[in-house]
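Consider the following input, taken from an annotated entry for ATP-dependent RNA helicase (Panagrellus redivivus).
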Amino acid sequence: MTDPGVLYYKEDPVEILKGGGRLPISNFGPNDYSLVSKAVSENLAQLDPSITETTPVQAAVFSIETVHVMHSFQSDMLCVSENGSGKTIAYLVPVIRAALSNQMLAANRRGPGVLIFVPSVEKAEAVHYTLLQLTVDMGLKIELLSGNVDFIQNPKFDIGVCNAHEFEIYINGTRKVTQLDLSGVRLVVVDDATESLKWEHHVELYQKIRTLTRARFYFFSSTMESSDAFHSLFNYENSYCYLHGDTNAIPAKVQTVFWEIMISHLPLVYVDETGKINTFPTLDSDFLKPCNPCDMLYYAVNRRREKLPNTRFLIFATNATVADFLAVKLKKLKIPACAYHDRQNTKERKENLIEFTNDTVKVLVTTEELLRRDVQNVDIVINFDMPLSYATFLHRCHCVGRNGKKAIVVTFIDKMTKKIETRQAIATLVQKTPKEDIPPFLKNFSFFKTLHRTSS
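Applying the prediction step yields:
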């Protein structure tokens, strides 16, 4: 049975239409409710993959907009559900209705009616593209206010898909940028709210929009972390909260493993002048000995590909430079790979993502940017660089194990690192990992051990 999640109004549980879960989209259509118009329903069916029924999170959000419409008209909402659960469609459908309603009620407005804030340029482009697909022939003007497009010249539009880092310029205006009139904004969506609210200038931006508008705020996140920033923004007196699954836990079908590396060791795998790949024995009773992380990556990917050639890998690096380096190195070692990160132009990113999606290459090296995309059918995630927060580790784990599919998350760890932030991250990871899953090399890990040895 599908877990429908739990929906609250203030602190009291309230009903989700027909118990929630997987419901036909038609339940929210024009015959029963005005949320999903015939045009939107048809456009949802044309998406790839086609959407004809709700996921649990969509059923809950759509219920707020229909069954509970008398309260939700001015209510804030917090929606916490795992990655891949359908949160983007869950907020885009209400966004479209809000924009159409605002269009009719405020024909003489001078600015946008709905704003969507997403944490990265790549996610903004993806949301903007999906929104255009869902609003074909509806007469809505949709603008992308993000880093890789020209500044908008006409401030009169219905929906803005924005990157919070760069939006403030539209509030203040410059000689080259038209100042936006936000008085007509009625709905603000903050995607990946947990991460966004870690940035002080994001919080200040949202607070400023609060003071300039009468908008309700919808916060969507895949993890639930309380913070002063969220408390300062959320209207607890009139709000809904939806929780689905154990969002702060690793998916049940995902196996997490930790492999010891030694960054101080020189790489030993290389291609000689004849094109032959030279490797050195690193096996100890069929286990990889600690070695340079590039060597460990080669052995991990190559050994798996020899046994299961269709395995799809997602490799996380700390920044774009490392991602590019690893993609090039893997290619030289005869493992087709490509990189995906925010330093690439839009065309290059799209081409590389399509290559991975279409199985032209089965290894994608990326940064945190890909956490904002919905990537399907990944078998193994490799954390080449240690994630510096447990929330990021969870995000990466939620890239796999979707729809009950078994998957593996491998994390490379150098326990001898001197970097304080990395040692803090390792300590947190050890603390939150069940004892039976902690490998021997981390059993006695101490945040202070190497630091004390260094200082003495």
